[in-house]
Automatic annotation (TrEMBL):
InterPro entries: Arc_rbn_hlx_hlx (IPR013321), RHH_8 (IPR041088), Ribbon_hlx_hlx (IPR010985). This is CopG family transcriptional regulator.
Length: 138
């Protein structure tokens, strides 16, 4: 078993957020959970958020087109960034969702190839990458 090694940390499938609610709203949520409409508070809140986002689908699509943003999960590997560097091109990351920069990307390579990062959602990268690109992250 000494030759077994973990290739990649397990990445979280979602992002935790904190919200503040008034006592009355919280009580109403608890009532719906108690009555069996939802399994717990988080279930109701997730459902409400998805329903609200569904009502704005066309606005989100139009905005993505206008800003040429990618929707969903976008990974950036050493190979991707080396190809850009070799072509003399600069990457401008624009993602709605999750952008991940692989752990084996060096800060030097990131600085050579990433001109800006705009992520509406979450950016997963090493602390060294985030520090190196701090002035390019919007």
């Amino acid at each position: 078993m000494t030759n077994v090694r973990q290739l990649r940390e397990k990445q979280p499938e979602n992002e935790k957020i904190t919200i503040n609610l008034g006592f009355v709203d919280l009580g109403r949520i608890d009532l719906l959970v108690q009555e069996g409409f939802y399994s717990n508070r988080s279930d109701l809140i997730r459902t409400a958020i998805r329903n609200q986002l569904d009502t704005h689908t066309s606005v989100v699509s139009q905005t993505l087109e206008r800003h040429t943003m990618e929707l969903g999960l976008r990974d950036y590997s050493v190979t991707d960034l080396e190809s850009l560097r070799d072509a003399g091109e600069m990457l401008h990351v624009k993602v709605v969702g999750l952008a991940r920069i692989d752990a084996d990307v060096t800060p030097e390579l990131a600085l050579q190839t990433i001109g800006s990062i705009t992520v509406l959602g979450a950016l997963q990268a090493s602390a060294d990458i985030k520090k190196a690109l701090a002035d390019r992250i919007k």
